[in-house]
Amino acid sequence: MNTSSEQIQIANLSIDVIRKDIKNLHLAVYPPTGRIRLAAPNKTDSEVIRLFAISKIGWIKKHIKNFKEQSRESPREYISGESHYFEGRRYLINVIETNGRSKVEIKNHKQLNLFIKPESTKKEREKVFKAWYRKQLKAQIPEIIQKWESIIGVKVNEWGVKQMRTKWGTCNSHEKRIWVNIELAKKPKQCLEYIIVHEIIHILESSHNDRFVDLMNQFMPKWRSYKDELNSLPISHTDWGY
């Protein structure tokens, strides 16, 4: 696909303009910082793009304001009484010192017991937590992929979980390989499912063009509400979005 990029300035806003082989103009504002991206058909006149962007200034500013007001998690210290999230629910940590195996366990749907060696560092506690989050996702993902492979008619060759700074998920459409961000363990299950569907559909269409949107509408009609839910939840103190 032929693409080119440029940047325009309108009302003190910087807008990334991407020209590609699509039929219509698409405007998006991305969390957490409010990055603005306008995708346009290759032959669209520059003045048409500019006028379209101007007509959307109110919409753009509204979304940027919402992102700036979105809750941010403060840096985690992994100490007793601290709040952590799992599957969209808030839990309190209870640190239990032990010489046994380090692990995390859910207690009474309100508490996460962190079993850790005495005098452990913050980094060591964080590592145990991330290992637990990764384990939870790896237990959930296969069933979701299998479900949507059948619905969409696409085979995923490989999948994985990793920490990502700029994406909720990624897809190598040629290799049919998808990755999901470990942070999704903190979000409601429907948000995880939305991201997996998003990435599976990228196997059929690698770009966020009209065909991609049509496929999302076809297979997951409520995807926009899941996307909005994901973008409304508290995000990590490390700024990244989707």
Just name the CATH architecture of the largest domain: 2-Layer Sandwich
- Classify the helix fraction into a percent range: 25-40%
Question: Describe the biggest sheet?
Answer: 4 strands, mixed
Strand content: 25-35%
Query: Can you list the strand order of the major beta sheet?
Result: 1-2-4-3
Kindly describe this structure.
The protein has 242 residues and is of the alpha/beta class. It folds into two domains: 4-69, no CATH class; 83-232, Metalloproteases ("zincins"), catalytic domain (Zincin-like, 2-Layer Sandwich). The protein is built from six helices and eleven strands. It has a four-stranded mixed β-sheet with strand order 1-2-4-3, covered by helices on one side. It has a four-stranded mixed β-sheet with strand order 5-6-8-7, covered by helices on one side. A three-stranded mixed β-sheet has the order 9-11-10, covered by helices on one side. Strand 10 (169-172) and strand 11 form a beta hairpin. Helix 3 (122-152) packs across helix 4 (189-204), helix 4 packs across helix 5 and helix 4 packs across helix 6. The relative contact order is 0.13. Mean pLDDT is 89; it is low at 237-242.
